[in-house]
Amino acid sequence: MSKKGPRERYVYVLDFLRDGNPLDRHSWHKNKPLLQVLGEDYFILMEAFPLTDLIQLEQRIDRDQEPPLIKVDVLIGYDDLTAVARDNLVKTLDRIITEKEAQFVNFFNRAEPLTLRLHALELLPDIGKKTLRTILEERKRSPFTSFKDIEDRVGIKGVKDILKKRILTEIKREDKYLLFVYPIESDKKAQDQKYIGYLERIRQG
């Protein structure tokens, strides 16, 4: 595992602190413009320096574009986020899940047992043994094609919200299994966590 984790090409702006963050644990962030951002693929939280004033909250930024708009400095955890960043995190996750619907639907089609007694799908909120059995039976008949298809055939509501809650749980490091969020070595809890990385597997085919 890389100390800095995989590189996130696309990030979303969660907060823009134009005068710096006096509460930041990094002394060099206290009095200069600072961004808190979320990576699109691995949900890695970072702090970055803006290279232009023309950056908006919730903006999606391509780190490979020229000239660059930001310079990533450090990786951070959920506890480092400002109140504004935490509010925008929820909205940003909603946007990412919507735009990556096909990948998340594929997760429902491909998820496997993690242990003899625990299936990956059971880590999702509101998915118990009975619902798990229905999901496995339905996907065996034919693969799911959309969130609505899952909801209609399985009888559950708010698949997008279920996924959002799970990703938030992982970002907060409240479970040792990480289905979607990449752990970083600088995180004190990383050594106790198990990265499953379903979206990464799906992107790789």
Major beta sheet summary: 5 strands, antiparallel
Q: Report the CATH architecture of the largest domain.
A: Orthogonal Bundle
Indicate the CATH topology of the largest domain.
Answer: DNA polymerase, domain 1
Number of strands: 7
CATH C-level of the largest domain: Mainly Alpha
Note poorly predicted spans: none
Task: Calculate the mean pLDDT score and round it.
Answer: 92
Strand arrangement, major sheet? 4-1-2-3-5
Amino-to-carboxy terminus distance: 21 Å
Summing up helix and strand content along with how strands pair, one would put the structural category as alpha+beta
Shape: elongated
Helix percent reads: 25-40%
Protein name: DUF655 domain-containing protein
InterPro entries: DUF655, NA-bd_OB-fold
Pfam families: DUF655
Give a summary of the structure in a few sentences.
The chain has 205 residues and is of the alpha+beta class. It has six helices and seven strands; from the N terminus they run βββββαααααββα.
Word description of this protein:
Helices cover 33% and strands 16% of the residues. It is α+β, with helices and mostly antiparallel strands and 205 residues long. The protein has 2 domains: 10-97, Beta Barrel (OB fold (Dihydrolipoamide Acetyltransferase, E2P)); 100-203, AF1531-like domain (DNA polymerase, domain 1), CATH 1.10.150. Strands 4-1-2-3-5 form a 5-stranded antiparallel beta sheet. A two-stranded parallel ribbon has the order 6-7. β2 and β3 (45-50) form a beta hairpin. The relative contact order is 0.15. This is DUF655 domain-containing protein.
